[in-house]
Amino acid sequence: MPDRLDGYATIFWSMFMRCKNLYALMFLVSLLTACVEEAPAPVSSGSDIFLRSDIQIIEEVIPRRATLAGLLSAHALDGQMAFNLIEAIRPVFNPRRIRAGNLYRLVLDDDGTLRRFEYHVDNDQFLRVTNQSGAVRAFDAKLIPYVKERAEIALRGAIDGQHSSLVSAINGGGESVMLAIRMAEVFAGEIDFSNDLRRGDRFEVLFEKYLREDEFSGYGDILAAEFHNDGRRLQAFSYKLPGDDEPLYYDEQGRSLKRLFLRSPFRFEPRVTSRFSYRRLHPVLGNHRPHLGVDYGAATGTPVIAVANGRVVSAARSGGSGNMIRLRHTNGYETYYLHLSSFATGMRTGSRVVQGQIIGRVGATGLVTGPHLDFRMRKNGTFVNPLIEHRNLPPGDPVPEEHLAEFHEVRERALRRMKLPSRPVDVGRIFTQ
Predict the structure, then answer these.
(1) Does domain 149-258+405-431 sit in CATH 3.10.450.350?
(2) Whole-model pTM?
(3) What are the pLDDT digits (tens) for 61-113?
(4) Angle at the Cα of 178 (from 176 to 182), degrees rounded to 5?
(5) Pair 152, 424: CB distance under 8 Å
(6) Radius of gyration of the chain from its Cα atoms, rounded to whole angstroms
(7) Coil, strand, or helix at residue 57?
(8) Average pLDDT of the chain?
(9) Is it the case that residue 214 has pLDDT exceeding 80?
(10) 3-state secondary structure 61-78
(11) Which CATH number fits domain 55-145: 3.30.1330.10, 3.10.450.350, 3.40.50.2000, 4.10.520.10?
């Protein structure tokens, strides 16, 4: 075709130049148009066709005070189908445990038959109910773990003019208060984070962080930490002994950081408002009398924890002491927790408690001027100063000699990772769908 067109063009251009006749020019244009039209026109694919979807997808959150039965009824699900769905769920998940604000999804056919129901249980798993055959009775319910990723994060911070507490310093690094609490628990036997911090203190921490679909899902273990506090350098390394269920924390020499007693009956941020004294001016009575404990100022409702393993001697109202819990520990020790607003569930005489367990909450019951905790310690029948007594208590068992070489390898690996930039240094999937 191009050769043919070129030939016609040459002939008629020559005619045009010789004749310069309008009729010749019109004839040329007509012939060229006819030649071009010989080329086949593209074939049209026709109009677009839109197919109607045969399913309906509903994605919402559980409203307040909702029940699963009421939720399904609100979406006009057949009553028998809803009943069978709930009965299929019961063996794997209690339908009464659905929580307001959690996400759910319904996939329905056009005729209202349920294909699939999914419900976000928590950060670790979701409920999936499928209808394989389309019948109202063929439901299969499963709890399915989310696909998660585990990251090891190295973070540094300091106590300075901008950040006066561990919580503030960790928030400044982009992490949450829960990480600060876990770090405080690691060093609970060595540092009172309400009173021992000084400007210029600094820390480094290597910890696990879980992600789900690139969103924060929770913290795992603290793998290693270093805290420079008032001229002291404290190190902590997580190490699990063969046969143990949980890892413990040791210093760089393999000595246990776990103490018989914690330094304070709070997880974090209490402040000492009155110290142990044999002659203190009572703020209510106005006379001098012994104050055989340590007062911690804290807001009403602040959780109070057991400083050591033990058993409940009493949990009841006790005159000017208000609501009080008394615990008995090993080696002749007892601890007292006064002026509580409430007791934790299970605080009955003879009940066993473990170190760090919440036993009650701060209040202002009894003879007080405001909310606080009066914490007392007694050894072999005599009240002692808790702040001083803690220093005299021995640590837990060290890493056994036969495991020291392995512990040193774990320590060195953690130190290398902790010195890397404050970004993920190791990421891997921990759950699969």
Answers:
(1) yes
(2) 0.58
(3) 999 889 999 999 888 888 888 898 999 999 999 999 999 999 999 998 887 78
(4) 130
(5) yes
(6) 37
(7) strand
(8) 81
(9) no
(10) ECCCCCCHHHHHHHCCCC
(11) 3.10.450.350
Band (pLDDT 50/70/90 cuts) for residue 286 is low
| Measured distance CA(326)–CA(320) in Å, rounded | 15
214, two tokens? 């690139």
State both tokens at 311.
Answer: 């058993």
Answer for the pair 142, 100: CB distance below 8 angstroms, yes or no: no
Tokens for 118, please give them: 């999914």
Query: Nearest CA to 112 among 85, 77, 137?
Result: 77
pLDDT of residue 13: 47
Helix (H, G, I), strand (E, B) or coil at 312: strand
What secondary structure letter does DSSP report for 191? -
Of the candidates 98, 76, 72, the residue with the CA atom closest to the CA atom of residue 85: 72
* 138, 131 Cβ separation under 8 angstroms: yes
Task: Please provide the DSSP assignment of 110-150 as one string.
Answer: TTS-EEEEEEE-SSSEEEEEEESSSSTT-EEEEEEEPPEEE
Please choose, from the candidates 4, 1, 31, the residue with its C-alpha nearest in 3D space to the C-alpha of residue 16: 31
Check pLDDT > 80 for residue 427: no
Element (DSSP H or E) covering residue 3: helix 2-19
CA distances from 134 to 80, 104, 115, 242 (A): 14, 20, 7, 51
Q: Express each pLDDT in 113-162 by its tens digit.
A: 888 999 999 888 899 999 876 555 678 899 988 888 888 899 999 998 88
3-state secondary structure of 245: coil
> Residue holding tokens 């941020």?
269
Name residue 297's amino acid. G
Decide: helix, strand or coil at residue 244. Answer: coil
Domain with CATH 3.10.450.350 in the chain: 55-145, 149-258+405-431
What is the predicted pLDDT for the residue at 122?
Answer: 87
Q: Identify the pLDDT of residue 282.
A: 55
Helices assigned H by DSSP within 205-327: none
Q: CB-based contacts of 215: which residues, under 8 Å, 6+ apart?
A: none
Both tokens of 390, joined, read: 């803690």
Segment 355-359 mean pLDDT: 92
